[in-house]
Design brief:
333 residues, alpha+beta, 2 domains, binds acetyl coenzyme *A
Length: 333
Amino acid sequence: MNCRMIQGAKIVSTGSAIPSVRVDNEKMSSFVDTSDEWIFTRTGIKERRVLTDLDKSIIDLSIDASFEALKSINMHPSEIDLVILATSSPNDLFGSASKIQYEIGAINALAFDLTAACSGFVIGLVTAAQFIFTGAYKNVLVIGSDVLSKWVDWSDRSTCILFGDAAGAVILQSCNSSSNSILNFNLNTDGKYSNYLSIPYEESFDTHPILKLRQGCFKYISMNGKEVYKFAVSKVPLSIINSLTEINMSTKDIDWLLLHQANERIISAIADKLSISSDKIISNLSKYGNTSAASIPLALNEALKLKKISRNDIIVVAGFGAGLTWGTIVIRW
Ligand code: ACO
């Protein structure tokens, strides 16, 4: 990490929210040709939550997660200086963060969306840390929230079984630089392979008789599952090792490995490469599937509620996904 640090940053609070509707693998096999056995052995997923007409929207999930984080430290929303919403499924292409800022009453905060798919939360947290390290802001609310159910082709069994909807939030707060808990990060992009995972925009050229405009709409998630798998298992361990080595740490120092919850086989393969035992892995994928930008804060909030994480534990958090993007943050809790 190469930055001028005026003050340190630490996560002081977390929250999360999930839709009420639960779809288990058996239910999936009632509308696509699949089975609980196939899904569970290939992915580790048992069920996922999806936003339906019984729930409201991505904004409401994000608000619930944010209020949980605020309430747990009795922070008034007006104390928040910045709201970053990491999402690839906003309600508005101009951004959904400002609606959340208004609804939670963060009247003093700047708010913006950050689009980086399943790496969105990691990149959002690093972005928040930069504003704190430089002394610009004191309290930043980082939300990872996705409702990929609206971009999934529910007749495509190779993708629809993977994803679920959720929101997670953390509050990053300034502290003395000697107590800084964001120890290092490593972020990467390789746009050459962006077609491996995409929600493409499909244009038609005859939408205006004179101007021949390029207008269209977004289609469903398209994914080359095998290539995404190989990418994650090869690139993420290197990112983790680089971010540890730079601060004279090694994989032996890791107390908790918290990876983007995409697939149990990806998580285990990365842990094996790093020689990290399974009891150090934080995972709740079986209950929620791949919730994209929400997966890391959702799993972090749950692990904290289960009192798994202790003060001074080293948590290595890594995200990966469309872009392709991937990145690691080393945190001292
Ligand atoms: N149920 C039953 N059979 C299925 C299903 C299903 N849901 N999906 C595919 N199959 C079939 C295929 O048709 C194929 O059949 P065939 O051999 O007769 O052609 C067979 O199962 C094997 O299919 P593969 O695609 O080769 O299965 P694979 O072992 O690669 O597993 C999977 C697929 C689970 C998607 C895996 O490739 C994977 O997890 N990749 C990573 C995907 C991922 O994590 N994406 C999200 C990244 S994060 C983000 O940014 C959003």
